[in-house]
Design goal:
By secondary structure, this protein is mostly helical. Helix content is 74%, strand content 1%. It is built from 20 helices and two strands. Helix 6 packs antiparallel against helix 15.
Amino acid sequence: MDAAERIISAVAEDVWWVLTPIVLALGCWFTVRTGVVQVRLFPRMIATLKDRTPVGPDGEPQSLSAFQAFTLSAASRVGIGNIAGVGTAIAVGGPGAVFWMWVMAWLGAASAFIEASLAQLYKHRTEDGFRGGPAYYIQRGLGSRRLAIAFAVILIVSSPLIINSLQAYTIAETVADAVGLPMDSWLPWAVGAVLAALTAAVVFGGARRIARVTESLVPSMALLYLVLGILVIAAHADQILPVLGTIITDAFSGEAVAGGALGRVIVTGIQRGMFSNEAGLGTAPNAAASAATTHPVKQGLVQSLGVYFDTFLVCSITAFIILVATPDLTGAPIGIALTQTAVVSTLGSWSSWAMSLIVFLLAFSTILGLYYYGEANVAYITPRASAMRAYRVLVVAVVLVGCTLNAGAVWKLSDLALAMLALINLPVIALLSRHAVALLRDYREQLAEGRDPVFTRDRLPDARGIDVWEDEESVTGRTPTT
């Protein structure tokens, strides 16, 4: 296993060195092409969360609401990457890696806007609502079924299988640490059995049940973690400004440049930032496409907000928890242990149980979110109900076994898998970005006219393969007034 882990790690590292400049370049390009949409339309991001959900002929919501799609994508974004991933970024790349996570979030919000708007544009109507994502816009926008299937297969293997096993392991590890039992005891199997049962109870209920669960979980876990983080940071209030200064100076340290380490700081920050907020990976668009909204841009803005929520709020809390409580990172543990040590050393042993609860909520919600991403892509590949049942059983089994796996190897494998997704998705959304820019122009023109923007496919005649958006009545769920 050690030899395999080293090989996977080396390949993943090489791929990320290639991917990082692509991520930065396209993030800058999307920012310019959209007129810095992630800043200029920030107030609209907040307002759109409260949009009325269009209804169908039966008077029921056509699909998930904008807020449910936000929490579904936030469920996958806000996971152990926000605790273990940030801890790893700081331990490996130093405090300066946090700065580059922030840069990744700001630029990534533009990438998230593009991919989510495209997911909405090319979404597909089903009997349960809407589905979509990169596989759909690759086939319909670029006309390549083979590339779409390749992306779908990689996503199914990486997100709901590889990464979900990592979520399960982290839950088991945190519980084991709280009760003082080793990971080679019976405990991981017991935790896995409970977690698998909870997962099965939700995922066999379909997309709407998943959305209802994440709609409750995401705000609760974010608030709980925020309170815990404020307590830790308040206890070290005198360290806040020094830590902020260290993050910024370490990001551009001349010593780091001389030692050849600056590249490591940047790559680590971009990698962990992208792992956490998923901007450009092509995962979150699967949630974005599920929303019933009156204009694709609305969900593009919501997903940009999701990137901010993940990185500037949750990841930043973790970074400050670690850095105010652990000024000297020499010999510091990597991953979730670094965050947990900082919390417990500041607040006492009771906080170990609080962290266990938070990690459970974060990881479980991510398991549900990533499961849904896989479900959307299984449905894209084949409509057979037997395939969906087999997929659900497989995900539950992975959650059970994942509690006992080698986390180091799984981390490296997940890094490689996510890099492969990004290497496909980023060039695709770059090629199709002209449609997202045209959608943004249409949205802003309607806003300027004092209208609540409504999109119909005749407003974008150059785009082929659009499945829905037939007319204003079907989009809004109400009869147009004359």
